[in-house]
Amino acid sequence: MLHHPLTLKAVLLILANAVVFTKHHQPFDGRIVGGSSTSIWHHSHQISLYHNGLIICGGSIVDTENNKTNGYYVVTAAHCVEPTEPQSYFIKYGITSLVELVPIVFIDYIIQHEKYNATTANYDIALIKLKVRLQFSEKVKPITLAESTPETGSLAIVTGWGTTSEGGVLPAPILQEVTVILVDKDVCRQQYAPYDKTDQMLCAGVPEGGKDACQGDSGGPLVVDGKLTGIVSWGIGCGQPKYPGVYCNVSWFRTWVIGKVQ
């Protein structure tokens, strides 16, 4: 996976003549395609992740099922935290607009999944421990991790900041949301052949295209029925009809996340 300050996507080279893009770039995080402005009041789990002072990804405040640890942990994509040097990252939370002046929160440590594969983007999940506990409010709440994968055809909401089109440069300052549909895993596997689409991933989009997460939305939440169901991971382009977005399947990692909190 390539990280270059002048490129707008991290590029996953799987085949010699084919490129799969993760939904992550520098210097700005990407944003929803085909969506609309929303408010943190409706997505109080959403955070923005910064590396060396630049926004690079999204993430979610998670319910750790333990009152002693709730408020300390965020999940994001593993590829968002390379290198895993906590001192170079911080988060902002409880904001709708990126220009809101709020305190930043520094990171204590980062745990990438032990099986994360940067070549295939499998196991693309990381747990972030914050240095201070977040104070919950109507704008700051943890989200429950999905226990199982929802049925094909379920409606899901993706949120994030950044570009509104494939290859865009500037992020819009307001949090965006878009509603997409979960795609059958076998259909998605066929659409992405010969790329490696695993059971640890799920796909979501719309048949006609035009609605998707995009560059830099990486690490942000895909929510079904109020539960964190996916983490924005990768895809070919943004909103292309034959290529839905690919997400880390949170239900596969619920036990892993809960087991890592302290």
Topology, pairings included?
Layout: E1 11-15, E2 18-22, E3 36-37, E4 46-51, E5 54-61, E6 73-76, E7 89-93, E8 105-112, E9 126-130, E10 144-145, E11 155-162, E12 172-183, H1 185-192, E13 201-205, E14 221-224, E15 227-235, E16 245-249, H2 254-260
Parallel strand pairs: 10-15
Antiparallel strand pairs: 1-2, 2-15, 3-12, 4-5, 4-7, 5-6, 6-9, 7-8, 8-9, 11-12, 11-14, 12-13, 13-16, 14-15, 15-16
Shape: globular
Strand order of the largest sheet: 11-12-13-16-15-14
What's the N-to-C terminus distance? 30 Å
Q: Helix and strand string, N-terminal first?
A: EEEEEEEEEEEEHEEEEH
* Share of helical residues: under 10%
Tell me the number of strands: 16
Structural class of the helix and strand makeup?
Answer: mainly beta
**Mean pLDDT rating:** 85
Number of helical regions: 2
As a percent range, the share of strand residues is 35-45%
Largest sheet: 6 strands, antiparallel, barrel
Q: What's the alpha carbon Rg, rounded to whole Å?
A: 16 Å
Regions with little confidence, pLDDT below 50 for 5+ residues? 1-21, 24-31
